[in-house]
Amino acid sequence: MIYTQRLLLRQWQQSDYLPFAQLNADPLVMEYFPRRLTRKLSDEVADKMQSLIATNGWGFWAVELRATSQFIGFVGLHSPQGLPCCPCVEVGWRLAKEHWGNGYATEAAKAALTYGFETLGLTQIVAFTAVPNLRSQAVMLRLGMANTGNNFLHPTITHGHPLQEHVLYAIAKPQMNI
Question: If residue 56 lies in a helix (H) or strand (E), which one and from where to where?
């Protein structure tokens, strides 16, 4: 578990699955993904995240508000496969829209970056998103990440789809200001 001032990053619990499915079905939350997730697919994603944390000791952790123990989404680290930037470790997040604008993504992602650099000994962590996703790019900038200028076409998104082109940001340990 990772504690921040207001948040807890932890292993997934069964009670997280329903609110996770609700945020994955929200058109605004999923605006920069090719599609919203069904309950079945959302549960499969949560199972995978839970399994990776159990195996590796880290991953995309469930995030809860410390004051209320309410699940609000996920933030953490992941080793994606099959992307032009691989091998790499990415920092990523997805929060329920009612929790946007409170600095939670930045707070939790800073904790994940610290874990990656200090505990895992990583020298660089990346983040990527669809080009039009300016909200996520703003979080990347608040984290001290820099746009690498190495945009890529996401291989799992249909050729010509408006979300296929992704920006790639990166941060190295010495650049981190935590």
Answer: helix 39-56
